Please model this.
Amino acid sequence: MSDELDPLPRETGLPLLGALPGLALRQLEFLEDAFRKHGGIFEIDLALTKLVIVADPRLAEDVLVRNARQYDKSGDFWDSLREGLGQGLPVSSGELWRRQRRLMTPEFRQQRLDDFLPTILQTVGEKLEMLSGDDGPIDIEAWTHHVIATVTVRVLLGSTLALARVDRLAPSMATLLDHALRGIITRKLPEWMPRPGRKHFLKARRAVDDDVMSIIAECRESPGEGHDLLRLLIAATDEDGSMSDQQLRDEIVAMFIGGYETTGSTLAWTLWLLAEHPRILAELQAELDENPESFDSPLLDACMREGLRLYPPGPLIPRVAVDDTKIGKYAIKAGSHVMVAPWLIHRDAAEWEHPLSFDPGRFFSTKSGRHRLAWCPFGAGQRTCIGKELAMMELRCSLATILRRFSIQPVEGRQPKVRLSSTIRSRSGIMLRLHSRVEA
Model:
């Protein structure tokens, strides 16, 4: 096959090290430069491994939709994720994934999710007390991650869960994910070579296992008390029975990480974008004020979608080629690490007019001419994020509640700089000034 197809454009770099130093130091800027140089698909030489970056929505559709069976979640990166996260839905594959998806899908339908609205609103309302509105600079990113972590734990494990447990779980979960993201490189190292952060990771994994397993045991002892996803998953059955405690643990860990980190990041960046665009902010707050009990706001929805476009919480969607295959006119070898890049797709001037501008109005048109995967913050195809609607509901409620109570302004001289972590984070916080709004 490879003789009939074109070789991939390649970003190489230094002898022995390849492009690893450039990617490590410049991260997303490095990918953007390579995208401008090579176009919608290219290979990056990382010395110990190679990555195929897919930055064209039509080629992304090859990977995520049309030929999805040619790509799975195997290899060093996914093995590293499973070491910490277990076999939860985002990282499992094969028959296990199919069974878990069947069991869990009914619990993520809108009718089920609406039952979590009181928990979300109560939690956001409580955490708003942390925002004084006294004009002092506030790191809104730290606040959004704290509040969404609390929301996520309460939705998953119960609205009455002690906050001390929430505060203990969140950093341990984050440690598991940060360690796993290094696995694509470190798992290639010889066994005798030290792996940075290994002891910290093992300690965090023990802490997560102890806490989550104890909560599962408590829920099994009182299955009818409270309303949360864990109790729904305990009750979910098919012809093979119900989930084991270990599988429940893995799903809870995966949903927590997939929930709080991504939604907290999107909420912070969207608030900053609105603060940078006071005209749009004023228009949105006026629309929210017209219906103070409703979260059904077209402009709110458009602002969320534009925030997800500019700062997609999953900037890279990794897969591994199962067999020799092709993407477009390019040969892809079996075992190749392939990463669909929403960060680049969302910034493609061929799909988006003035792609770096914050323009929620672009989502009001139903005839944009854009490819359907030009906007793909939750992936696409059969493995589209199962928590998409829950995340959008949390984001919608949090954003509306904050903006009904506060006006927001950027802090002069504190432009946030993007850092690629488990999601899109800032290097030194996202600073805003909040002013309490005077009720009419």
